[in-house]
Write a structure and sequence with these properties.
alpha+beta, 6 strands, 39% strand
């Protein structure tokens, strides 16, 4: 069994609606659990669930920038650093249910 790791990039508009000035501002990590398929199937599943992950308006956007099939015990770099430095994970990746 494995899970899908989805990475996003967030942008904020520091300009106006008429003259936008987009700056990257971090992102989010998501896991879709209980996956047993190929990378191509993972990408297709993530694309079908994009409305639960991505958003866009005049002031901010979030877009998917990466999809990976990983082991069930995989931790994001941020989760691992929390565990290493704080002894626990306070801010885990978001978990989504497959549609």
């Amino acid at each position: 069994m494995s899970k899908i790791y989805v990475m996003t990039q967030d942008y904020e508009n520091y300009g106006s609606v008429e003259e936008p000035y987009w700056k990257p501002k971090g992102g989010s990590d998501y896991f879709i659990t209980n996956f047993t398929g190929s990378t191509e199937q993972a990408v297709a599943l993530v694309n079908s669930m994009a409305e639960k992950i991505e958003y866009a308006n005049e002031y901010a956007t979030s877009t998917i920038i990466g999809v990976e099939v990983v082991a069930d015990d995989y931790m994001t770099e941020f989760e691992q650093s929390q565990l290493d430095y704080e002894g626990k994970i306070r801010y885990p990746a978001k978990v989504l249910e497959a549609v």
